């Protein structure tokens, strides 16, 4: 509307806006980096960019992040409509894309009370038929590209039906459907079992009637869990290993801690051993500070007018919070670009910093109503896997390796482009 346009025109905004595509040409292949650089010059707290026809508020300072994710969290807790999300998640009926409202609230309740409270690993109990895991990985990778937030359909809604991404999404959805229908049917025909043996699918089926979920709803939730619960954790682990290989001093320290905290002779590190591993937890935080896999979180959408940093923001504004930029802001972190897990240890400067959304410099899981519901699950998974990798092996780069390549690639999660190739040596 012309009123909204008037308000948008008052916000700081980068120059070089083009007709139709807006600032899209400035975003490039690594949007979190490009947006940080643009923000530094044109709007360090908030700036307005036009992605195609869509006005988007980009938040890049802790103070502004606190305004949109705490003070006005309730007003920014919705999601923009995504044509690709509609196709993949049957009308965006998954948690991550559902608009703010009763349906979303109910799904959050289901996952927090039934799925993520218990210790159930999503992939651990999937059938391991040949080829299936590989197919899952490929599906997840394509999904990630489709959902990354910088695809044409999102910014030129009128083109949605013509766009390639939609075509790909339709194909993609068909493959997911076949896979999930088969899994759900197999689970539905199973006889009652021990509660401990239930996986995510069993649990969802057991509450399906209470919550009035359709099969399509269940499939959308499962895709969310696979998407959010596997790649993000895996990417964070990959970054932690990559940083440890680049920082042998930190690796040595972690090895010493892990090996001393586990009872001698024990075969695996288990959850009970983790409590005393403070350096391990610091390594996890530091890897996520430098490499939050959701670099720009998931886009939010405002549902009412409000004022941020002195600017009036109209209802219906898309919001991106640059968590990657917050974690590297040289004005709020000492040696911001360096991998220094020590900063999070007791007695150090950032000892009190957690990733529960209370410290607005550090938002790898977001904050407020849309905060990741999988934090605890992700942290335990991360710690247990990294601790076991370190407990059993010394890791080396292959002979003649030029070192670890940290080049990034953007998708719904930001990941390293080149696979990490390491040689394990039994301890
Ligand atoms: C290291 C691992 C993980 C990271 C870095 C991560 C990060 C995030 C981020 C940044 C968001 C968006 C927050 C926002 O929009 O403001 C998010 C949302 C979400 N995450 Fe995670 N996540 C991880 C693991 C998991 C796991 C293990 C699960 C579940 C199995 C999960 C489920 C979800 C769901 C369902 C949402 C959408 C929430 C909503 O829109 O209400 N995540 N996560």
Summarize the structure.
Helices cover 46% and strands 8% of the residues. The protein has helices at residues 2-8, 24-27, 31-42, 62-71, 83-88, 102-115, 132-147, 152-155, 164-188, 200-211, 215-246, 248-261, 271-274, 278-290, 323-327, 375-392; strands at residues 46-51, 54-59, 300-301, 306-308, 311-313, 318-321, 393-396, 408-409, 415-416, 423-426. It has a four-stranded mixed sheet with strand order 1-2-6-3. Strands 4-5 form a two-stranded antiparallel ribbon. The protein has a two-stranded antiparallel ribbon with strand order 7-10.
Structural summary, described in words:
- The protein has helices at 2-8, 24-27, 31-42, 62-71, 83-88, 102-115, 132-147, 152-155, 164-188, 200-211, 215-246, 248-261, 271-274, 278-290, 323-327, 375-392, and strands spanning 46-51, 54-59, 300-301, 306-308, 311-313, 318-321, 393-396, 408-409, 415-416, 423-426.
- The radius of gyration is 22 Å and the shape is globular.
- It is 46% helix and 8% strand.
- The strands form four sheets. Strands 1-2-6-3 form a four-stranded mixed sheet. It has a two-stranded antiparallel sheet with strand order 4-5.
- Mean pLDDT is 87; it is low at 122-131.
- It is α+β, with helices and mostly antiparallel strands and 427 residues long.
- α12 (248-261) packs antiparallel against α14 (278-290).
- The longest helix is centred in the middle third of the chain and has 32 residues, at 215-246.
- The structure holds protoporphyrin IX containing FE.
């Amino acid at each position: 509307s012309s009123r909204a346009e008037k308000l948008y025109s008052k916000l700081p905004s980068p120059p070089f806006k083009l007709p139709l595509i807006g600032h899209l040409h400035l975003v490039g292949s690594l949007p979190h980096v490009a947006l940080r650089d643009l923000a530094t010059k044109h709007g360090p707290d908030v700036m307005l960019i036009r992605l195609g026809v869509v006005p988007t508020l980009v938040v890049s300072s802790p103070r502004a992040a606190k305004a949109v994710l705490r003070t006005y969290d309730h007003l920014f807790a919705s999601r923009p409509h995504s044509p690709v999300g509609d196709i993949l998640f049957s009308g965006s009926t998954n948690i991550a894309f559902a608009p703010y409202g009763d349906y979303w609230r109910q799904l959050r309740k289901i996952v927090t009370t039934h799925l993520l409270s218990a210790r159930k690993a999503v992939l651990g109990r999937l059938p391991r038929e040949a080829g299936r895991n590989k197919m899952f990985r490929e599906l997840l990778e394509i999904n990630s590209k489709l959902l990354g937030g910088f695809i044409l359909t999102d910014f030129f809604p009128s083109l949605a039906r013509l766009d390639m991404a939609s075509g790909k999404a339709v194909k993609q959805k068909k493959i997911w459907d076949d896979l999930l229908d088969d899994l759900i049917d197999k689970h539905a025909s199973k006889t009652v079992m021990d509660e401990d043996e239930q996986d995510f699918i069993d649990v969802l089926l057991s509450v399906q009637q209470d919550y009035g979920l359709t099969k399509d709803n269940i499939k959308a939730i499962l895709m969310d869990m696979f998407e959010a619960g596997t790649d993000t954790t895996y990417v964070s682990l990959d970054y932690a290993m990559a940083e440890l290989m680049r920082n042998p001093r930190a690796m040595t320290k972690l090895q010493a801690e892990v090996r001393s905290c586990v009872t001698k002779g024990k075969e695996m590190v288990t959850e009970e051993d983790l409590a005393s591993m403070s350096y391990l937890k610091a390594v996890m935080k530091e890897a996520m500070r430098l490499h939050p896999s959701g670099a720009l979180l998931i886009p939010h959408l405002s549902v009412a007018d409000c004022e941020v940093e002195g600017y009036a923001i109209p209802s219906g504004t898309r919001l991106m919070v640059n968590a990657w930029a917050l974690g590297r802001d040289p004005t709020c972190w000492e040696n911001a670009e360096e991998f220094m897990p020590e900063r999070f240890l007791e007695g150090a400067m950032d000892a009190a910093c957690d990733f529960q959304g209370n410290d607005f410099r550090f938002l790898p899981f977001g904050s407020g109503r849309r905060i990741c519901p999988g934090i605890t699950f992700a942290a335990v998974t991360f710690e247990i896997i990294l601790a076991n990798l370190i407990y059993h092996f010394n890791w080396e780069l292959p002979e003649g390796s030029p070192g670890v390549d940290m080049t990034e690639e953007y998708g719904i999660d930001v990941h390293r482009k080149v696979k990490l190739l390491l040689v394990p040596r039994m301890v």
